[in-house]
Every structure is written in structure tokens, then in C-alpha cells.
Amino acid sequence: MTEQEQITTDLHPLHLTVNGKDVDSVLDSRISLADFLRHELRLTGTHLGCEQGSCGACTVIVDGVAVRSCLMFAVQLNGSTVETVESLCVDGQLSRLQQAFHEEHALQCGFCTSGFLMSLTAHLREHQVTNDQEAREALSGNICRCTGYAGMVKALLAVGDGESTTQ
Q1: What's the rounded Cα separation, in Å, for the pair 34 and 109?
Q2: pLDDT tens across 22-60, in order?
Q3: Do 23 and 15 touch, CB atoms closer than 8 A?
Q4: Rounded CA gap, 129 and 25, in Å?
């Protein structure tokens, strides 16, 4: 078998749940979760920034845990549940966290916003955020190059009471 034949035959079946919907696909083992979400499923809210796992723009929730989708191969997630930023808005209603980001002007260009929203959604499911220090620690895994984070801290404190961050 030639190298080209090997490359084109390295396909794997994939079944997962994305934003509450079952997804079945057959794909190359080298496709990242981020590329699968963006290019195959057209869920373009997941952004690619550094493609090295440093910036957090590509953060999604897999089986309840915030992960960098640029660092995972999609085929690794067979049988998993994935939540993207598109899952936060239900029936046209922004989640509490999205609404707080809007009200507190917690974004500028918006490129990093989806990663922040997903990492904070996962964080708030497990932890309350009751002060500036806790808010800054919760935000620390993602990078924003536009803001001073003050609006994000205010937004997080507005919803950090441990109640549901969805509706």
C-alpha cells in the first residue's frame, strides 16, 4: 500500500451527541474536534485561535468537562457528548451567562467570547463565583486580547451564585 493509499483509507466511524443531537459520521482520524465541528457540522461558534491549546477560543464541553477542541481528534470522542456555544441559546433565549456578558459589555471583537462562555459554563456547574479573585481565576484559562477583563468579571459575578447558567 502506498503512503497516499494509507492516508486516504484512514477513515473511522464516529457517533456522538452534539448539542443534544445524535451525529454519525465517517472521518479521517487526523481531523481535530474543532475542524469537525466547524467544517463538517457547520457549528462555527467554536473559534480557532492559536491551534495549540493556549488561547481557549476553541473551548467546548465534552462529557461535562471544558476542553480545547483544537487539541483533540474528533475520533477520540466516539460515544461522547459535546456542547458548543450554539447550545447555550435555547428558543432564542440567551443563557444567563450570555445575557450577563451582553449587559456588562464583557466582549469587544467577540472572537474569544465563545471559548469564555463554554469554559465558564462548565466552571459554574461545579463552583460558585462570589468575588473578584474567584472570577479572575475562573477566567484565567482563556485569553482575550481586546478587553481588560473587567466586564467579564462583572458578568461572571452577576451569575456566579451557583444557580443554573442556562435560562
Answers
A1: 20
A2: 999 999 999 999 999 999 999 999 998 888 877 889 999
A3: yes
A4: 39
* 3-class DSSP assignment, residue 11: strand
Instruction: For each of the domains in the chain, give its residue range(s) and CATH number, in order of start.
Output: 3-84 (3.10.20.30), 96-159 (1.10.150.120)
d(CA 118, CA 116): 6
What is the mean predicted confidence (pLDDT) over 63-79?
A: 96
User: Helix (H, G, I), strand (E, B), or coil: what is residue 143?
Assistant: coil
Q: How far is CA 126 from CA 7, 39, 137, in A?
A: 41, 31, 14
Give one DSSP letter per residue of 60-74, joined into a string: EEETTEEEEGGGSBG
pTM (predicted TM-score):
0.86
